[in-house]
Amino acid sequence: MSMGKAVSEKYSMILVSSMEKVFTDKEPLYFPERCAFQGLFGENVSFQLAIRADIRRKEKVRLKVYSDLEPYIKVRRVALVPSEYPAHPEKDGNYLKCTPGLYPDLLKELDEDGETAILPGIWQSFWIDIDITDKIKGGIHPVRVCVLKDDDTVEVEVTAKVEVIPIPLPKLTLYHTEWFHSDCLADYYKVLPFSEEHWEILKNFIEVYVRRGGNTILTPVFTPPLDTEVGGERTTVQLVGISESDGKYKFDFNKLERWIALCSEAGIEYFEIAHFFTQWGAGFAPKIMVEKNGKLIRRFGWDTPAVGEYTVFLEQFIPALKTFLSEKNLLDKTFFHISDEPRQEHIKEYEKARLSVLPYLKDCKIIDALSDYKFYEKGLVDIPVCAINHIEPFIENNVPHLWSYYCTSQYELVSNRFFSMPLARTRIYGVLVYKFGMEGILHWGFNFYNNQFSKKAINPYEVTDCGGSFPSGDAFLVYPGEGGKPEESIRLMAMNEALQDYRALKLLEAKIGKTAVIELLEEGLSEPLTFFEYPKSPEYLIMLRRKISRILTSDEKV
Predict the structure, then answer these.
(1) Cβ-count burial of 532 within 10 angstroms (0-12 exposed, 13-18 middle, 19+ buried)?
(2) pLDDT tens-digit profile of 383-418?
(3) Distance between alpha carbon 407 and the CA centroid of its chain, in Å?
(4) Sheet holding 36-41, edge to edge
(5) How far is CA 281 from CA 202, 225, 350, in A?
(6) Which of 161, 159, 164 lies closest to 64, judged by CA?
(7) Which of 414, 360, 353, 405 has the alpha carbon at shortest distance from 384?
(8) DSSP letter at 285?
(9) How many whole angstroms separate alpha carbon 157 and alpha carbon 14?
(10) Looking at the DSSP assignment, which residues form a beta bridge with residue 165?
(11) H runs (alpha helix) in 190-336
(12) Is 268 in contact with 202 (CB distance < 8 Å)?
């Protein structure tokens, strides 16, 4: 069997970890210590093959995998996508590159026979996934990957070794939501919201969302008032039908019931109701469509103050929604929002909006993304979802039920998922979330395919930075593929690995206790782990997982 690096007359092939980004103009280094892969039952193990061909023109080749794990293996090509705005001008030293250009991100399926194109003179990479199931025997399994010639003889090959640890990875106990934008799917695929075509597309995307660790989903009872220009609108995706007569409202929850059934069947466990008030201040009502006098009209929106006539509506709507959720045994698995990302200057508006609905939400879970500790100190949010670069006061004060998030503004020192960042910077998030006991994590963009403020829809295969507004990689983790099916990104896979690390740490905690786990996490480090200070290299995460496996498979207690 060959090693992790091989050269033939025409081809060079290098085995690299799932935490590398392979750029066309740079030969990736081969690190044997990064290429001994392992996984527990229920885990997805990923690695890559980097290939360069000394040829004059594009060639079609076949990639072939030989292994007893072959039934559980999937091979995809890492495709390049454009970025005009890969990073903010302010940044730290932990970026790969920050110039506009092509970045490796999109995972494309190969042809059914494994055929793919190799371009001359550049480095390309192929992503290999292995779903480790309890049908696989524990131990080391060679995975031989070959480039085949036309006559099926081997041109070049490398062999990876994958160790299967015969212990089940526990279920994710962390609440995890990546805001799911139903309207963006209707817009991109040009289908009517909640038509049969739209429902099928939603199903496809939600299944991938769950497969990669999503268990809580943004639910558009109204069109979510997120990332919308003041006075502007996003495509209506309102699950609740509403009619009005003489100031009284009636509610039709049939679409919401179908949404819940679809999500639950896919594996969603928790539901996150769209915000009751507009973003950045809670000053106004979201867009709400109501049937009145036989016509469907926009009854509430940017011209509706948060408190007043809209309060009369919410006094009727919230109890009806809660009754429906209680009948579905979901009220205790549902989160409610007031407004997204209020700042200090919005504190009075936010308080006023919150007080207007609090009598109807006293027995419910209310969460909001915010960064100012004064909101929590004043008792204005029950479950804060704090930006990780502002989270220290929340941690220092032992705030219970704390969640964390990051977005375009978290670009210095902390974890994030931009194209321009190393994948290890994305994956370390699982370790940090574990150490600091986050109850949940949130991100604003699973599939946001608009420009900033949703002034227009974009094609995410061509525009990856919301029209030059946010660094590429901030707004979405999946691409809208053909046939209404999502195509994954290597950043989504890195986030999935972060969650697998978290689950492995929780499993270890059950055996040796959290104090001992944190000691293990910080073994050999000069400073304790924080959201700002953490190891930057893939080796840390790889060696950590090996230490975890060693303790799980031994009688070792500490």
Answers:
(1) middle
(2) 999 999 999 999 999 999 999 999 999 999 999 999
(3) 11
(4) 36-41, 154-168, 139-148, 59-66, 115-118
(5) 30, 11, 6
(6) 159
(7) 405
(8) P
(9) 9
(10) 40
(11) 196-211, 254-266, 309-327
(12) no
Q: What amino acid is encoded at 180 in this protein?
A: F
Residue type (1 letter), 532 = F
Assigned token pair, 248: 């009284």
Total Cβ atoms within 10 A of residue 196: 9
On the 0-12 / 13-18 / 19+ scale of CB atoms within 10 A, 467 is middle
Q: How many residues does the chain have?
A: 558
User: Can you spell out the DSSP letters for 112-143?
Assistant: TT-EEEE-BTSEEEEEEEEE--TTSPSEEEEE
Contact residues for 57 (Cβ-Cβ < 8 A; gap 6+): 120
DSSP line for 386-450: EETTS-HHHHHTT-TT-EEE--TT--SSS----TTS-HHHHHTHHHHHHHTT-SEEEES-SB--B
Which residue bears the tokens 């007569």? 245
pLDDT one-digit tens code per residue, 88-138: 999 999 999 999 999 999 999 998 888 999 999 999 999 999 999 999 999
